[in-house]
Specification:
Layout: E1 4-5, H1 11-22, H2 24-30, H3 37-42, H4 48-55, H5 60-70, H6 80-89, H7 96-110, H8 120-124, E2 164-165, H9 169-176, H10 198-201, H11 228-235, H12 240-267, H13 281-287, H14 297-307, H15 311-325, H16 332-352, H17 355-370, H18 376-392, H19 396-419, H20 428-440, H21 444-457, H22 463-479, H23 483-501, H24 506-523, H25 526-543, H26 548-563, H27 571-586, H28 595-611, H29 615-640, H30 645-660, H31 664-682, H32 687-702, H33 706-719, H34 728-743, H35 747-767, H36 773-776, H37 783-788, H38 795-820
Antiparallel strand pairs: 1-2
Helix pairs in contact: 2-5, 4-5, 11-12, 12-13, 15-16, 15-17, 16-17, 16-18, 17-18, 18-19, 18-20, 19-20, 20-21, 20-22, 21-22, 22-23, 22-24, 23-24, 24-25, 24-26, 25-26, 26-27, 26-28, 27-28, 28-29, 28-30, 29-30, 30-31, 31-32, 32-33, 32-34, 33-34, 34-35
């Protein structure tokens, strides 16, 4: 059992707290943080850490929001409200008009009358069945928004009073120096000001209730398994990242307890009449915290596995009912809120791994949007989300459909925006998903082009999209064998993710796994193993059970061990088996997402068969691997067709199986099938084609056909430009060619190719970066400076440059006219 409690504050503190909360929008609109920071620092209300937090925000609005979030955490002893008020009356600015506006703002705060409720807990824990307190105001300040008397909105549920595990509540309150139920991430800019009945909301407003429970309802008993020991261990760690994760885990446990109570009351018809599951505060607190979805998955899984309670499905059904109920709504704010809930719910459920349920929510939202064809921006966001989901599950036909829809709508929106003189639409996410789609289709050229466009168009305020764009572009550049640039992008993605989100976040994990994949394919070094091990540890810590995210980390670590020829204790094989088992338990037997796990398992089986000294065990392993390679080929051909990069890769693995079985002719046939496919897809000079030719040459050399092998190897080393990037297989190609020249007694060619080999090796090894944690975790340079390495500029920067160039040309023409006259 887990109970929760809040701490009380004095009536005066409550007044101060609510004044800032109720007038948040007005303060944010008027305040420039730089005008009052000096005063607050001088009075020791803020410290250097607070200053760093505020400075890390990029916009004036964000800085103001962050300051308002920090102030109430300073506790009674700091007199934070008194000094904040005094700072507004004594700003660091000479402009009389600005000073006057700050004086009016102080009067505005002073004239806000707050009902004396006795405690913040009482004010915040009003149930939907009670009348919410009305905050009467005097005449509003000109140009300052009045947030009172607004109907309930989804935004109003963005945060809640923080609830803590009972055993730790006093400690947390003492550490913070303020009541523990002050929202950690600040307050919402909108507040429910009065109760709205179902009759008032019918068909026009989202049925939204804000309700929190500090005590268990009668008859309720929690079944959640809270990992208290792990949370306490994190909170006692000396590492800042562990402390932050521990705090997030504790907050997630509180949220899940609230959801458990809400569901219990709703299911047993003990909730108030207005409560709808998918729009109650308990659900919205979870799904709208998009960067922390992962914290709740272990609880959802436990309820499903141990108690046969599929909360994700229940919420999806509830959302479907609401979209039908509001099908004809005309209020634009309600439409935006409903779509926002749907998109966040889709993300949550899909990341949880419940893909079928995610598509049910997609169907509900799509049906709603069909009745609102004028909501272009919402439809565009929806299509891009669906494209992303389709790419993730490798449903390429569906991806193509949503890509077409998003592209057509993008053109319409861009034309409409241009006619009003507005900036063009941010399409970086669409471009990144288009790159992924083209890559999966084997169109590496268009994939590369779309990746470049996404890098140019990305909005730097959208941090998670920025990291995703960098990861996507890294793969696109690697597929074009622009390996030094691909490596730059992979490293930049990790640096950005760590700086913005910290190491314990799914976005950092995504970036690190992307770097590991690049290392496994091209670097093959010991640090790749170290990085893959770190990714596995982070995945286990984030998810707490063997989820698909952990399975990906298992497979990545197995591939890293194989790439670095690290065969200690056959760990690579155990990891590959674990990864495949988790994936097989999660997907249907014919699911395309089984393909990468099957590939890793096949490579591990082959390696183990080569290493074993037991003829019997070797034979058993080869029988097993032959079964798996047939399964892999069937999956690739089923989902991608005969002519695809995926099927070609499967044929290459099949060739390795035949070589292990001493079936050289069959292996050569598989190599040739893969060669023909990749030549059709990418062209003769592509790196993948040259690598297959190298493998065929090595097969010819092993079979004794040295002349043919020499001819093929010569074409490889002379016809392929590595751009001075060191690769093991290309080095092996040079060494094999020199060996063939020696066997054919071509001494002149031996000297020639030794010289070329040494030149290439010297340059490539000199260019090869020694990537370690110090580099991966370094602070990244400015994004615009980073892009200049690629001879790219972000769209907005490019527009400014073009405009300046036009002005310069116009000035030059005017100067010429003057001189000529």
């Amino acid at each position: 059992m887990m109970s929760m409690r809040g701490n009380y504050m004095s009536p005066l503190e409550h007044q101060q707290f609510q004044r800032l909360r109720v007038n948040r929008i007005a303060v944010i609109q008027e305040l420039k943080v730089d005008h009052i920071l000096h005063y607050l620092l001088a009075k020791a209300v803020l410290d250097d850490g607070d200053l760093s937090e505020i400075d890390s925000c990029h916009t004036t609005t964000d800085k103001s929001k962050r300051l308002l979030d920090i102030l109430p955490t300073k506790g009674r002893a700091s007199n934070w409200y008194k000094h904040f008020r005094a700072a507004l009356l004594n700003p660091s600015v000479e402009d009389i008009v600005i000073k006057h506006r700050y004086q009016i703002l102080v009067e505005f705060l002073d004239n806000t009358i707050i009902e004396q409720t006795g405690s913040l807990e009482k004010a915040n824990c009003q149930t939907a069945g009670q009348q919410m307190p009305r905050f009467n105001k005097y005449q509003p300040l000109p140009d300052i928004a009045n947030s009172a008397s607004r109907p309930p909105t989804v935004a109003a549920a963005g945060h809640r009073p923080k609830t803590l595990l009972a055993v730790e509540a006093p400690y947390m309150a003492e550490r913070a120096g303020s009541p523990s139920n002050i929202p950690e991430n600040g307050w919402d800019e909108t507040e429910s000001a009065e109760k709205w009945t179902m009759r008032q909301l019918q068909g026009t407003k989202i049925p939204h209730t804000v309700q929190y429970w500090d005590e268990d309802p009668s008859g309720f008993s929690s079944v959640l398994e809270i990992p208290l020991q792990e949370i306490v261990k994190l909170e006692q760690s000396a590492r800042a990242a562990d402390l932050m994760l521990g705090e997030q885990e504790r907050d997630a446990a509180g949220r899940m307890k609230q959801l458990e109570i809400a569901y219990y009351l709703w299911k047993n018809e003990r909730a108030n009449d207005e409560m709808v599951l998918c729009t109650c505060s308990a659900v919205l607190d979870i799904i709208q915290d998009v960067n922390n979805h992962f914290l709740h998955f272990k609880y959802f899984r436990c309820l499903s596995k141990d108690y046969d309670l599929d909360l994700a499905l229940e919420i999806a059904y509830s959302y479907d009912e609401v979209t039908q109920w509001l099908a004809e709504v005309n209020d634009q704010e309600t439409c935006y809120q409903l779509v926002d809930i749907g998109l966040n719910l889709i993300s949550f459920v899909f990341e949880f791994g419940a893909h079928e349920i995610a598509w049910q929510v997609v169907a509900s939202l799509e049906a709603f949007l069909k009745n609102h064809t004028d909501l272009w921006m919402l439809q565009f966001s929806f299509y891009v989300k669906c494209l992303s989901l389709s790419n993730s599950v490798c449903n390429l036909a569906r991806s193509d459909e949503y890509y077409d829809r998003a592209s057509l709508l993008r053109e319409r929106i861009s034309k409409a925006m241009a006619s009003f003189g507005q900036e063009t639409l941010d399409c970086s996410e669409l471009f990144a998903e288009a790159s992924i789609l083209k890559r999966k289709l084997g169109d590496f050229g268009p994939s590369y082009t779309w990746a470049q466009k996404s890098m140019q168009d990305v909005d730097l305020e959208k941090k998670s999209i920025l990291v995703n764009v960098l990861c996507t572009s890294s793969v696109a550049y690697a597929n074009q064998w622009k390996l030094m640039r691909a490596e730059d992008l992979a490293v930049e993605a990790v640096q950005q993710a760590r700086m913005i989100f910290g190491v314990y976040s799914p976005i950092y994990l995504q970036a690190l796994k992307n770097f590991v994949a690049f290392s496994n394919n091209f670097r093959h070094d010991a640090f790749g193993v170290e990085a893959s091990m770190a990714a596995l540890n982070i995945a286990n810590k984030l998810y707490g059970y063997e989820s698909l995210h952990v399975a990906q980390a298992y497979a990545g670590h197995a591939d890293a061990l194989l790439a670095a020829s690290n065969y200690d204790q056959l760990l690579f094989f155990d990891l590959a088996e674990k990864a495949y088992k988790v994936a097989a338990d999660s997907y249907s037997p014919n699911h395309p997402l089984l393909i990468p796990y099957t590939q890793t398992l096949v490579k591990s089986l082959l390696c183990r068969a080569r290493l074993t000294r037991s003829a019997k065990e070797r034979q058993e392993l080869l029988v097993w691997v032959e079964k798996e390679i047939r399964k892999l080929l069937r999956l690739c051909e089923l989902h991608y067709g005969d002519v695809s990069q995926q099927t070609a890769s499967a044929h290459l693995l099949e060739a390795e199986v035949f070589l292990a079985q001493d079936r050289g002719k069959d292996a050569e046939a598989c190599f040739n099938m893969a060669l023909n496919t990749m030549t059709m897809l990418t062209g003769e000079k592509h790196g993948d084609v040259q690598k297959i030719k190298f493998q065929l040459a090595m097969l010819a050399k092993a079979s004794g056909d040295v002349v043919r092998a020499k001819s093929m190897l010569k074409k490889v080393v002379e016809g392929f430009d590595t751009a001075a990037y060191y690769m093991n297989w290309y080095n092996d190609a040079y060494e094999a060619l020199i060996s063939c020249c020696e066997l054919t007694e071509s001494q002149e060619q031996v000297k020639e190719f030794r010289s070329k080999h040494m030149g290439w090796k010297w340059i490539s090894e000199d260019n090869r970066r020694n990537i370690m944690w110090r580099l991966l975790h370094a602070v990244p340079e400015g994004y615009d400076s980073f892009l200049e390495k690629f001879e790219l500029w972000r769209s907005k920067v490019k527009k400014v440059q073009v405009h300046l160039e036009k002005l310069k040309n116009a000035g030059d023409l005017a100067a010429n006219d003057i001189s000529s006259s």
